[in-house]
What we know:
The chain is mainly alpha-helical. The chain is 88% helix and 0% strand. The chain has helices at 8-33, 35-118, 128-152.
Amino acid sequence: MSSHGNDPERLRAEIAQTRAELAGTAEQLAAKTDVKARAKEAAAGAVDDARQRVGAAAGQTRRAVGDAASTVAEKASTVAGKAGDTASTVAGKAGKTASTVAGKAGSAATSVRAAVRDADLPAQAHKPLPWAVVAGLAATITVIIYAVRRRRA
């Protein structure tokens, strides 16, 4: 309190100021002792913190998934290109093999026909259809054997 006298107005002003200070201090003490309100504030802060962390983790996950998807797409494209190249190579070799087999089968069929003509066999043996079937079967077996050996290699 003041030592400047006993002026009633001054005393009233000092009392009012002290009351205001005490009211503020009482409110602060009440806030500190209000466990329920403090718990709510702490929970709200924790929830906000968790939301921020989850948002950051979600962003990182999206970026990682996007990067992984890009990598997978690039590798798939590379594999598809290599598979196409390999398919072209195999198709070319199969075409060459088929034409070689067909040529050899044709030569074999011609040789067999000539041998049959020269062998004086009955008329049934001179028909070209059974010999064409035999030549086709030989060509098919040759292609199958070649394909099996290529797979094992």
